[in-house]
Amino acid sequence: MKFLEVSGLGPVSRVGLGTWQFGSKEWGYGDGYASGAARDIVRRARELGVTLFDTAEVYGFGKSERILAEALGAERAEVVVASKVFPVAPFPPLVRRRAEGSAKRLELSSIPLYQVHQPNPVVPDSVIMPGMRSLLEEGRIGAVGVSNYSLQRWRKADEALGQPVVSNQVQFSLAHADPLEDLVPFAKRENRMVMAYSPLAQGLLGGKYSVANRPGGVRAANPLFGTENLRRVAPLLDTLREVAAGVDAKPAQVALAWLLSLPQVVVIPGASSVEQLEFNVAAADLELPADARTALTDAARAFRPVSTVRTLTDGVRERIGL
Length: 322
Prior knowledge:
Blueprint lengths: L2 E4 L3 E4 L3 E2 L12 H5 L1 H11 L4 E3 L8 H10 L7 E6 L6 H15 L4 E6 L8 H13 L3 E7 L3 H11 L5 E5 L11 H8 L2 E5 L29 H6 L1 H14 L3 H10 L4 E3 L6 H8 L8 H13 L5 H12 L3
Parallel strand pairs: 3-4, 4-5, 5-6, 6-7, 7-8, 8-9, 9-10
Antiparallel strand pairs: 1-2
Helix pairs in contact: 2-3, 2-11, 4-5, 5-6, 9-10, 9-12
């Protein structure tokens, strides 16, 4: 396993584990999964050197935090547990109460990384960050992070906190490569961390889906899996398969390795089984040739998905035979 040194957190594994699915019925994981597979996945992650575990108060309405705490057991105090506060009415007293709730569910006296789940479109960070700063000064959290922040908003969060916001968790993959242009250079220059969620674009970058083979379930609502976007992404997937064949790996592992080749980036894919976890972690040791990285970057930048509205329109047209 490779690690990234992050201020206030120490060494963070470049491959972490996202636990959105823990306790979330929309992914089909019920109570049996929580007490069995989730525990086995977390324990195997620790054996493989994973030290970063991401959750949030809204994942399964707190169930994800509880399941993660139980699965980690005594080791929960030895790893970087990252949770998030959902910024509805994010005034300092409420931020404190929400942090206390998460800490209780996680069975931690201090949450190593506490993140603002998304920017509040109405309330500025000058309101929420004083509450985060108090938690930091009292040792109730180890570091402050944000999620889904633009570079401009990340900088404003720095100003409001009065010190660096160490991380920004964003959707980032070969299919969503915008952070490559601004967030990654900023993180490199300022020694911050970019946490890539959905690094496999909900399985799109596994290479098995196409116009003729579209997914069902939760993925069916993702605009990336609309007919037009599946057509547009075909050149990127072709490049991904070509690189994978050249390095004797699977397309999904190459997609993760591309992200890990970037400075200050960690990935937090989910895992529905121990085997999938092992598959993801193996990407940390996959070295991509320079020409392969360039080809993937060019293909990612060339991919221009259509909007959600157009994707929905295409879906209606298909259903009525147009």
